[in-house]
Amino acid sequence: MLQSLIFFANERLLVAARGHVPVKLGETGDAGRCLQVVLTNLGYDLPASTKHGTILADGIFGQETYDAVVEFQGDNNLAADGVVGPQTLARMDQLLASGNSDPLRNAVRDLRAGAREFIQSRIDGDAFQERRIFEAGLYAVDRLVFGDPRHFALKIQRLRNYLFWSVG
Question: To 5 degrees, how large is the angle CA 112–CA 137–CA 164?
């Protein structure tokens, strides 16, 4: 099962990771956007899909994304077919976890640090700049949470309940 937070809220990628209906050329939407973010985070260039870094990703699994997936698969001794199924997702997940490069986890970490600074600045008096930094962090996290944000919130709540009952 995928462990990276960036994959956690995307049901479509979880389906592909289980071996059902892989993500492939021609698909559009949140799964493609998530893969594009992961690929760029792992060092693969997607200038057309990100409009040279001016947007996060366009979500179109077109030729550029296909080529990046094939390159990723070749670099990782996987079948270089351009189709994102269980092995490709597992390897991406492993690399994100081992390299501390899960973009959503990093954004949440930065947001947590920003929240502490914002709270401290409220105590000290002047919070305007820290509030702007905190709001930017919230925006970054919001952009990285793919799929239905309510679905993500429900998963987080289930995880909290599971941890509470299993530890308690």
Answer: 40
